[in-house]
Write a structure and sequence with these properties.
200 residues, alpha+beta, Immunoglobulin-like, 5-stranded antiparallel β-sheet, 8 strands, rod-shaped
Length: 200
């Protein structure tokens, strides 16, 4: 009897131990996963912010626009003086662009008398004529965006109306052309907020 009880106890212990090993094996399999897997690493990845940059120059290569010897005329297409401006997207993102006239110095009354208008491209429509004084308060917006390295040609035409005072003979004026660029998806109002633009 003693031997039977001991044998049963031993068998029970062996069965329990075997069951524990099976459970441990199952648990180990569940913990380590039974699926085929792989993992790869890409190194040296980079991220950078885009650069918005625009340049402007007289189309033939001159450093500035020169509209000299303006005279009174009834037909600006024949008597107006034209100068060409090339605006280039020198950054690495698409931009919308605009430009304005910024008068610096003038003979009295000359900027009020002289008229100016603009055309984008050789076949574009001319803007409405306006005085230099009014043009300085109006931003002329380009009709299309420019992708990187794309250029837009702008023709500037200036003349004096037939009612110009004789006292303006020999009058002079200096002005800057200010060109602005914003990323192509920026709100249109960005052009009007000078705090958004770096001072050059």
């Amino acid at each position: 009897m003693t031997t039977n009880t001991a044998t049963r106890g031993t068998k029970r212990k062996v069965a329990l131990a075997a069951g524990a090993l099976v459970l441990a094996g199952v648990g180990g399999t569940l913990a380590s996963g039974a699926w085929f897997t792989d993992q790869q690493k890409m190194t040296g990845n980079e991220m950078s912010a885009a650069t918005i940059a625009i340049s402007a120059a007289e189309r033939s290569g001159n450093a500035s626009l020169e509209m000299k010897n303006l005279m009174p005329t009834a037909d600006a297409s024949k008597g107006g003086i034209e100068s060409d401006l090339k605006i280039v997207n020198t950054g690495d993102a698409p931009v919308r662009w605009a430009f304005a006239i910024d008068p610096k110095a003038s003979s009295a009354g000359f900027l009020d008398a002289a008229l100016i208008q603009f055309r984008v491209g050789d076949q574009g429509a001319w803007s409405e004529p306006t005085s230099f004084t009014s043009a300085s308060q109006t931003l002329q917006k380009g009709p299309t965006s420019l992708v990187p390295n794309e250029a837009a040609d702008v023709t500037v035409r200036a003349w004096l109306p037939v009612a110009t005072s004789n006292s303006l003979q020999g009058a002079t004026a200096t002005f800057d052309v200010v060109v602005k660029a914003v990323q192509s998806d920026a709100p249109d109002a960005t052009f009007d907020d000078d705090t958004q633009f770096p001072t050059r």
